[in-house]
Amino acid sequence: MSKNPLHLLIGLTASAAALHAGNEAALDAITVHETPITVASEGIETARPTSLPRSAADLEEVITRDTIEALNPSDIYDVLQYASSVFIQRQGRKAPAFVKVRGNRALGIIIDGVYIPAAVTSRILAVLPVEAIERIRVVRDSATLNLGPLPNGTGGLLGGDDAGYLVIETRNPGAPLEGLAAVQVESFGREHVTAMAGGIGEYGYLNLLVDYDRSDGEPDETTGFEKTTLYAKGGLFYDAWSLDLQGFVTRGSKELQRSTTPGVSDAKWEYDPIKIGEFSAKASYDWGQGVTSLSYARSDLRMELQQRSWSNPDAYTLEVQEENFSDLRLDHAHRLGEHTLRTGVEGIWWHTPTGEYFYTGWEKKERTAGAFVQDEWHRGRLSLDGGVRVDKTWIDKGYEQVGSQKVLIEDEAMEPVAAAAIGARWQAAPSFALYTRARASTQNAPEVETVDGVSLSASSRLGAEAGFDAAPAPWFKPRLSLYFLDVRDAPYVAAQWTNPNDPTDIVNLYGSKDWHEYGAEVTLAGVLDALTYQLSYSYNRNNDDTLDNRIPDSTFNGIVTYTYAGLKGTVGVYYVDNFEAVNKAGTGEAGGYTNIDCSLGYDFSAMQLRHKATLYARNLTNDDYESVYGFPSLGRVIGASYRIAF
Question: What is the pTM of this model?
């Protein structure tokens, strides 16, 4: 990995800090103590296409900007592991990280109201600067139907079903002129510098960010990286019209972690260069009682995988990966007395001409179209809501995996996926509320060869959830969620048939099976003077032994923060139960670890600027735990950061 002189970037930091030294108004400090991760319960809002009904309040957790800064994360994954039921896996190979929720289900992401599918989630999250994020809404279930399509991303012939979404809201300026600069250094030669400036006026706003981040990583495990990101967000508003624009470009390189498992430990791989760009635009018109929005997003990626060998210096292979994705959505929400109605249509295009990153050389091209309608009725203490959604996918070009081979698929129209959801929330007392939600979805089976020669039946999913949240005292705010998912006639590859006259002629034979999973999430949070805390425990089981063994039964996380004068100390703890991990490295036990993060920061004002100096540690116990078999964690990280804001 190349090393750029850090002093040039420190000079940029000093310049940005001095840009507006005369703005004393920005230094007015307001101390508000709130729990690190909060629950959103505002109901459907006409101006926010990603808002959820009140019955979904306990399905969603909000990680605030203050919590992100207190954790001093290396990336967004360090933050997400503190949300209930979220489980982060890190590895080498071509996909370095996975976000799982409620067992083994993946999450789609939405950035500033625009949907991005699970197929490209890990790549976008890996390069999105954490400094650009204002808050993260973790929606643990898709039962509200308005956030994105039912088959979350690209599922091929077998399709798929989403579990929820990460709704990321980036930072908006809050003053005519404001900005910050930050320097961060830590173990393994990491150097990170950010500068941001922006402002808001009568007819618009603009925010610009430059982010440089590099690390040597662990040399024997090849975990180094280097990336530069330019991020911009702006908008115009006039009368009832508004236009919001957002985008970023990243250039860099990343080493892929070496496995400790024989058979794959010889790989010495690196993405170099990495080129990722993402852009979105949303135009809205406020009719008074309703808002109409039209949004478009586009992401493009090109990465060159340099494949070398530890044992053979002459071995070399170049693999080029290209991928692009587009999303177009029309949304309208309207207030009708005690009802708020939202309806929308969405189109998605996904294309990887070089093949998906695990299956290079096999082009994939898919389209999805969907429509939904949703209504929430609210009177006094009671809220009721319901919605329906239909999505249909066309596979223009793809493949079916047959053992170690692939069979080309062209012009395949998948059967539509249809879902309906209902919910209710009753505010039984000012400090106590009950909620319940249910969702049913169905999809006809594809025309495939089966084990018994009988066509597959339509698959169906029925999910239900119930719980409460309470706040009997500021220092004691418990929440409980119980959920159940029943899956019937889920298609899977049950066997294969080989033509006795042609060994290369292999056909997948499909079958179907039923399974169900269930779980619970318990959270305690509160504020006691200058101390805030949140503790979360999650439990998830599946009646299918294979599926059950490959997820941790239990996870626990907690964040405790104490503030005294300008000092702020934070301790974060998370625990992941043992589970069986199966991947390219083989099969083995992972999990079974407890990780501790901590930080101590000091806020003060000087030279008419706001300063913050922080010392922090991640993986304080230096545990070489594995969230994926064969790929140990980085180890203890000690770091320091310094921020200047105006």
Answer: 0.88
Q: Which residues of 324-360 are buried (b: 16+ CB within 10 A; e: fewer)?
A: bbebbbebbbbbeeeebbbbbebebebbbebbbbeee
Q: Do 520 and 85 meet the contact criterion of CB atoms below 8 Å apart?
A: no
Cβ proximity of 386 and 145 under 8 Å: no
**Residue keyed to tokens 């319940």:** 436
197: phi then psi, degrees, rounded to nearest 5:
-150, 145
**Is the N-terminal amide bond of 273 cis, ω within 30° of 0?**
yes
| DSSP H helix total and E strand total for the chain | 5, 35
Residue 199 exposed, middle or buried by CB count within 10 Å (0-12, 13-18, 19+): middle
Backbone angles phi, psi at 485, to 5 degrees: -130, 125
**Torsion angle in degrees (nearest 10) through CA of 113, 114, 118, 119:** -160
What Cα–Cα distance (Å) separates residue 443 from each residue in 145, 358, 375, 531?
16, 27, 24, 49
List, in order, residues 6 or more apart from 60 with CB less than 8 Å away.
39, 40, 52, 137, 138, 139, 140
**Cα–Cα distance between 116 and 166 in angstroms, integer?**
10
What distances in angstroms separate CA 54 from CA 44, 187, 383, 643, one per listed residue?
7, 44, 7, 37
Rounded distance between C-alpha atoms, residue 112 and residue 235, angstroms: 12
φ and ψ of 467, to 5 deg: 180, -170
What is the distance between the alpha carbons of residues 642 and 570, in angstroms, rounded to a whole number? 16
Task: For residue 546, give the 3-state DSSP assignment.
Answer: helix
Q: What is the mean pLDDT of each run of 10 residues along the chain (646 residues)?
A: 41 38 31 56 83 86 91 93 90 80 82 77 85 91 77 53 79 92 97 97 96 92 94 96 96 91 82 94 95 94 92 90 93 95 95 83 91 95 95 88 73 89 94 94 84 89 93 95 92 84 82 92 95 96 90 95 96 95 78 95 95 97 89 93 96
